[in-house]
């Protein structure tokens, strides 16, 4: 029988355990009247910063989270069910605006609304980008944000377990001990099971001459590599921001967390020409009265690249024209808020294959699924330990297409302004021009990956790692209870489409290897009849989705170049306000973003503490 790998979500299997309660405040009236730091959002960034700031017992920290605690449902904890919390009560159910460049489809962009944030929803890929990805942040003028400055924080976050016996004996997995940390809060390890077709894919990768990296963590995340996950090596369950940074410090009485409260505004005052933060306002629901808490030192926005700019805008920090259109008075004239928004494009291609053991056996064979679940629960072994994506491939342009020189030529002759949103402010345009030059310089170099391939039993996910396209995030009204208009600008720049077209062709090269031919692959998507660049382009516009890495909407950079935060992540024009989440990234790294968000947050905590 032929199998088509399904990327569809597996049915949730709920086993209720009591929710965790530490210094978790159930009622508004339990809050102190003021806190030194108020952190907005209990995701990867927010919980990391809150944990580190509260190491000093004399410092009071409050985290405000709109969602609730999960109940350790199987679909949250078991790696083989990862992604199962998408579309549940733990998800904001956000979508990108439907635009012509993606055939007018509203692409869903899950965002965690739960303690732990999107680290409870995702597929647990725990990788870093390459040195070149972070060094370009520094090249853009952001001193202290290159690879060498971030590496200590990547390490600080980790409690790393090297490849286990299975990964070494079956896959020859290697690692570079010097790139890892062992004292951090976050479990990082390799699953004791990998779906067997992965081995054949690795053979195909070697057959076409792609190199295998010793370790993605040491600044060389290029070629193929074994990818660790945020997974506890003893229980084999997910290690999310909640398990790592909250559960471990539950006894700290100076760290408070309130759930079920959505931040509605940052409160500010203007004295002697200086604007400063005075408090944070929140409410449990749109029609409920708001409450507020005073901020002694700082408010820290960690609500993610979609909600952080929205909160700034409804608080009067943004583009005066946009703010007046939503009936918000301008407090700080900072037009770049919400601009430079971008995300990795995900494209799913599918081949049906003949193979004896594939992921979809879990969904098609109830006996096998039940046995596998029992194996997971009794021995922490078997298919459910694998969150998938055990082996990833990241390729420079020259390594997957002979059209690299042509694409580079198109890039350097392109007017950077030509494909930006029409309301891009002058400072954001200036910043983008510098980014465009840098993207052009890097696109033909061997140390910069522009494409990612993820193998899943014949399905090959193609990821666009350094998009040229930009969109924006805009509050739709003065209320944070109305979803912001988020547009990642997918495929608005034709360079992104051209790169993906070449990416699909190279997927076919991989499928034609002797190694993969043993599966007798049959191309289902896009389909063997889709061959011309135009037809491939249409397929891509009609099926492109997100790799779930929204970023860049409150970028780190000079104010006159579209920066919203300075090199200490302080928002320009206001005292006592920082942004610590993926919003700050000027350019996405060629990597899944969770690991980088942790490193950024660990570094931010030291900056705030003055270390
Ligand atoms: C997201 O959708 C799920 C399923 O319909 C629902 O239970 C949940 O409340 C929604 N989330 C929000 C924030 O509305
Ligand atoms: C591991 O290394 C051995 C010896 O070099 C080789 O025969 C085998 O194919 C390798 N396996 C993988 C999965 O790379
Ligand atoms: C890209 O191709 C070059 C030249 O063939 C090769 O040396 C290099 O290892 C390849 N890079 C990767 C990541 O496979
Ligand atoms: C702004 O206020 C006006 C007048 O009250 C109202 O008609 C309009 O709908 C408001 N706009 C938004 C986006 O809330
Ligand atoms: C898994 O699926 C393959 C392909 O259909 C089939 O040959 C095999 O018997 C299945 N194995 C199990 C355990 O269900
Ligand atoms: C389903 O799984 C069971 C247990 O692994 C296996 O014995 C059986 O052959 C599988 N059925 C099919 C149709 O592959
Ligand atoms: C390819 O074939 C499919 C199925 O017959 C058809 O729906 C599709 O329109 C064809 N695409 C092109 C570009 O010919």
Automatic annotation (TrEMBL):
Cofactor: FAD
Keywords: FAD, Flavoprotein, Signal
Residue sites binding FAD per the record: 114, 122-125, 263
PROSITE patterns: GMC_OXRED_1 (PS00623), GMC_OXRED_2 (PS00624)
Signal peptide annotation: 1-16
Gene3D superfamilies documented for this protein: FAD/NAD(P)-binding domain, Glucose Oxidase, domain 3
Positions of the catalytic residues: 549, 592
Residues in Glucose-methanol-choline oxidoreductase N-terminal domain copies: 112-135, 304-318
A molecular-function term among this protein's GO annotations: flavin adenine dinucleotide binding
Pfam family, one: GMC_oxred_C
InterPro entries xrefs: FAD/NAD-bd_sf, GMC_OxRdtase, GMC_OxRdtase_N, GMC_OxRtase_C
Keyword Ion transport: no
PANTHER family, alphabetized: DEHYDROGENASE XPTC-RELATED (PTHR11552:SF115), GLUCOSE-METHANOL-CHOLINE GMC OXIDOREDUCTASE (PTHR11552)
Protein name: Glucose-methanol-choline oxidoreductase N-terminal domain-containing protein
Organism: Neoarthrinium moseri
């Amino acid at each position: 029988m032929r199998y088509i790998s399904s990327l569809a979500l597996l049915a949730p299997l709920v086993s209720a355990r009591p929710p965790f309660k530490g210094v978790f405040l159930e009622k508004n009236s339990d809050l102190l009247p003021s806190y030194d730091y108020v952190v907005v959002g209990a995701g990867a960034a927010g919980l990391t910063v809150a944990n580190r700031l509260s190491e000093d017992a004399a410092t009071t920290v409050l985290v405000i989270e709109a969602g609730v605690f999960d109940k350790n449902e199987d679909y949250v904890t078991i790696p083989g069910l990862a992604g199962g919390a998408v579309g549940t009560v733990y998800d904001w159910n956000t979508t990108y605006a439907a635009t012509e460049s993606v055939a007018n489809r509203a692409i869903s962009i899950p965002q965690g609304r739960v303690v732990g944030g999107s680290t409870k929803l995702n597929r647990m890929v725990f990788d870093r980008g390459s040195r070149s990805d972070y060094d370009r942040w520094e090249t853009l003028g952001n001193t202290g944000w290159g690879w060498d400055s971030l590496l200590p924080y990547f390490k600080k976050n980790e409690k790393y377990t090297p490849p286990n016996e299975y990964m070494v004996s079956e896959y020859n997995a290697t690692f570079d001990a010097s790139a890892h940390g062992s004292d951090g809060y976050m479990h990082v390890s390799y699953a004791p099971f990998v779906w067997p077709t992965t081995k054949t894919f690795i053979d195909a990768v070697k057959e076409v001459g792609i190199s295998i990296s010793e370790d993605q963590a040491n600044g060389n995340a290029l070629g193929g590599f074994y990818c660790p996950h945020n997974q506890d090596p003893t229980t084999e369950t997910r290690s999310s921001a909640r398990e790592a940074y909250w559960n471990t410090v539950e006894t700290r009485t100076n760290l408070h967390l309130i759930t079920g409260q959505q931040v509605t505004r940052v409160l500010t005052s203007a004295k002697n020409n200086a604007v400063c933060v005075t408090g944070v306002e929140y409410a449990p629901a749109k029609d409920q009265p708001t409450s507020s808490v005073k901020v002694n030192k700082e408010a820290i926005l960690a609500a993610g690249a979609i909600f952080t700019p929205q909160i700034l805008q409804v608080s009067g920090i943004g583009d005066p024209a946009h703010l007046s259109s939503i009936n918000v008075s301008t407090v700080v004239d900072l037009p770049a808020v919400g601009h430079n928004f971008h995300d990795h494009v995900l494209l799913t291609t599918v081949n049906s294959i003949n193979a004896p053991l594939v992921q979809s056996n879990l969904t098609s064979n109830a006996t096998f699924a039940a046995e596998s679940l029992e194996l997971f629960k009794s021995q922490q072994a078997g298919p459910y330990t694998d969150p998938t994506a055990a082996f990833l491939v990241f390729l420079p342009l020259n390594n997957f297409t002979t059209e690299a020189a042509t694409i580079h030529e198109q890039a350097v002759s392109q007017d950077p302004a030509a494909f930006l949103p029409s309301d891009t402010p002058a400072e954001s345009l200036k910043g983008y021009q510098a980014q465009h030059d840098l993207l052009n310089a890097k696109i033909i170099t061997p140390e910069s990956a522009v494409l990612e391939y993820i193998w899943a039993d014949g399905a090959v996910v193609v990821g666009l790692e350094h998009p040229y396209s930009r969109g924006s995030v805009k509050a739709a009204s003065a209320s944070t209870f109305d979803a912001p208009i988020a547009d990642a600008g997918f495929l608005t720049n034709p360079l992104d489409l051209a790169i993906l077209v070449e990416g699909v062709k190279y997927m076919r090269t991989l499928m034609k290897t002797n190694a993969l031919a043993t599966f007798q692959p049959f191309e289902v998507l896009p389909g063997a009849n889709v061959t011309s660049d135009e037809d491939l382009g249409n397929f891509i516009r009609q099926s492109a989705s997100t790799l779930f890495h929204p970023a860049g909407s409150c970028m780190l950079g000079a104010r006159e170049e579209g920066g919203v935060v300075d090199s200490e992540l302080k928002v320009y024009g206001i005292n006592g306000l920082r942004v610590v989440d993926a919003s700050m990234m000027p350019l996405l790294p060629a990597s899944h973003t969770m690991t980088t968000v942790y490193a950024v947050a660990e570094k931010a905590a030291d900056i705030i503490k003055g270390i």
